[in-house]
Amino acid sequence: xxxxxRLLMISEAHNGFFDESGTHDDSEIITxxxxxxxxxxxxxxxxxxxxxxxxxxxxxxxxxxxxARKGEFKNDWTNExxxxxxxxxxxxVSDNISVGVVTxxxxxxxxxxxxxxxxxxxxHPYYFGLYTCLYKLVTMEKIVKRVKLPLPLCLLFDRKKxxxxxxxxxxxxxxxxxESLGWGATFGDMGxxxxxxxxxxxxxxxxxxx
Length: 210
Description:
Layout: H1 2-13, E1 16-21, E2 29-36, H2 39-55, H3 63-68, H4 79-96, E3 99-106, H5 107-113, H6 116-122, H7 125-143, E4 153-158, H8 164-180, E5 187-193, H9 200-209
Parallel strand pairs: 1-4, 4-5
Antiparallel strand pairs: 1-2, 2-3
């Protein structure tokens, strides 16, 4: 019960959860993405997500472990069982979460197309993906009329050693830029967490992995 109360308090403080994939050196593509929902949406999702994992004896969902059949997913599940498990996870996300946003970029294309001065400023394609996702969120309601975001957006990012400082700088730079343009208080504060404690980051991991 204590663990459950803590999770719901985290969801109340943050309504958007973001993850990344491909920041290791040998990856050809980098993806940054996240999911946005109301506090009630995250609460419903979290209860259902935990129930699905518990029924299958899984403590923490990691998409890469699932795909590689390692860690908690080094088991005797049939392909049919794996497909059913993944389908249930995807459905509980689609049933409860307001919107998802993702940016992917091939490193070769990034190096070839993005001007050198901008690459030097951004430091890494991860930050390009982060900036693009934030811009998509700011403009989403203006482009897709049926989308209504729960503002302000208070985002929690999966902790990535060596990337937190500049990611925070980009976030608050974008926040200040858009507020100075009169686009309203789209963004609140941001922070960093871990999938084993901040359960909604597992849903962001699923989105980025898929």
